Amino acid sequence: MKQLNIKLEQNIFMPNKYGNDYQEFDKDTTDALDKMQVGDSFIVKTYGDVEKVRRFCRHKLKKEIQARKHYTGKTKNDGFIFRVWCTKIISNQQHAEMLNSIQEKYESKKLLKNGMLPKSKTEALNVSTINHNDYRAKIDNAVLSIAECREENRMLVDDVEEIKRILAEELGHKKGWNFVSTGENDD
After folding, report:
1. 71: domain range?
2. Is residue 73 domain-resident?
3. What is the pLDDT of residues 45-54, one digit of tens each?
């Protein structure tokens, strides 16, 4: 059996189990962002860093930020940086409203089981509880037209089969319509 060699390490940061959001914000960075007032700015190198700071400031520090791209050289090919400004400090009430609106948007776009409408939307249609499920199923018109065509084709096939049976009886064939070609070459 193979030996397992391990080496113990101490004081290693354990990331959040749901992802390593805000891992790069140490105490100094968090304090500096917390002290930012409207009009203060700083520089980051990538747009990903801008988005990390934006999320952290909006959700943890209740601040709105804006960023602008600045080119570092004489031409656009020389490189660029992003300057980030604090534009607004959000009150607790505004922050709660913002979180509620985000939650409402999430709930409205949430996937529902089997393409069914939620009960709240069907209750708004004044649907009685007897036929409640009739209005919950929202089926695309293209699917309905395909189903109708398929039903019409099935009815035509049934009619043709009935005509074949009647012809076989009239012509005296006891086993049915046996002399009809099955699509194979009889040569």
Report:
1. 35-105
2. yes
3. 888 888 888 8
